[in-house]
Amino acid sequence: MNNSTIKHIFFDLDNTLWDFEKNSREALLHLFNEHHIKTHCKTEFEDFIEIYETVNHELWNLYNLHQITKGELRYQRFYKSFLHFNYNNLQLAHVWADQYIKISPYKTHLIDGAMDVLLYLKDKYQLHIITNGFKEVQYTKLNYSKLAPFFEHVIISEEYGYNKPDIKIFDIAKVLTSSKINECVMIGDNYDTDILGALNANWKAIYLSNQHKTNEDKNYFQIDKLIKLRDYF
Ligand SMILES: [Mg+2]
Question: How far is the CA of 103 from the centre of ligand 1 (A)?
Fold first, then answer.
């Protein structure tokens, strides 16, 4: 990659640096046991979590497209998961919505190589976050997992009213960091939001994923491990 002009590296947070999946599973296992879901739903945790992750992913897509609100996303992911196992309990879904937000952001598992790669990059580049996550929890995640000191700007899209992949949040990021288009690269695990959003804004983009995705855009690159960023910068 021709990175000679790059000065600002923008990271997505969830599942790019902060191991959302692992942290979320720990929090959900706690709730699963505390509320005797094995009995109510007649299922093991592994089967429950598989359904939950599918439901949650679908609802996040709708949220990113502004088709459901944050409030709906927060409880519906649990309500719909319960319903899948014929357990109709709207009240408990609301309890989980509150409890999950209280537990999961304090978990500290990071994606493999996150600390090493940030230590490697921090003196050479200005590092920032652009996240679509909820503002109530993103700062807690950054602080408790000790990621916060690496970043000059933490841009929570919700606070500006535009979620990735909306080009406007990339423009806002550019203004906030006083950077130019050719100085910016976005790194993220979500192709539709992080990568297509950045490319549409004419930024460079590095897609973190095991699943190969072809894109002819000269500004597009893919890595399967975060630590491989060291080969680019
Ligand atoms: Mg992500």
Answer: 19
Confidence of residue 64 (pLDDT cuts 50, 70, 90): confident
Band (1; pLDDT cuts 50, 70, 90): low
Ligand 1: centre distance to CA 156 (Å): 13
What residues have CB less than 8 Å from 227, skipping those under 6 apart? 112, 113, 116, 117
Q: Do residue 122 and residue 177 come from a single domain? A: yes
161 and 224 part of one domain: yes
Q: How many domains does the chain have?
A: 2
Q: How far is the CA of 212 from the centre of ligand 1 (A)?
A: 17
Nearest to 226 by CA among 118, 105, 109, 124: 118
Domain end (from 84, 106, 128): 106
